[in-house]
Task: inverse folding
């Protein structure tokens, strides 16, 4: 936005120069940031048990995670179920809210298509606790 405003004033400045100047002055853009990693304090935190486990076959270990995709007027959230051994996306869903239902739908679809895994690995987000 600053680059466009400077252009209207007939000042020729590059995007990286404006970014460097903003960083030097301690300025940052104000926009709504996603809050997707909030853990409920009442939920127990378990140790990470898969550190040295060899992934040798399909359906041994699945992982599920949520990412956000920034759009012009907000965010959408993408949940994906991935098989660690084959690196294949087994199921995915998009949602405009961070509720549990779209996560459950993705897991149910993956289990319905491929059977239940031995291990389902997730982070400690509230949707998975």
Result:
């Amino acid at each position: 936005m600053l680059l466009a405003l400077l252009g209207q004033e007939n000042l020729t400045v590059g995007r990286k120069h404006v970014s460097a100047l903003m960083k030097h002055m301690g300025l940052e853009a104000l926009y709504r940031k996603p809050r997707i990693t909030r853990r409920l304090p009442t939920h127990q935190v378990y140790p990470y048990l898969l550190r040295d486990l060899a992934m040798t076959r399909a359906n041994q270990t699945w992982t599920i995670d949520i990412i956000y995709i920034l759009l012009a007027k907000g965010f959408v959230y993408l949940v994906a179920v991935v098989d660690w051994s084959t690196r294949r996306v087994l199921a995915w869903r998009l949602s405009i809210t961070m509720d549990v239902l779209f996560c459950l739908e993705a897991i149910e679809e993956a289990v319905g298509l491929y059977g239940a895994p031995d291990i389902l690995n997730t982070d400690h987000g509230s949707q998975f606790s």
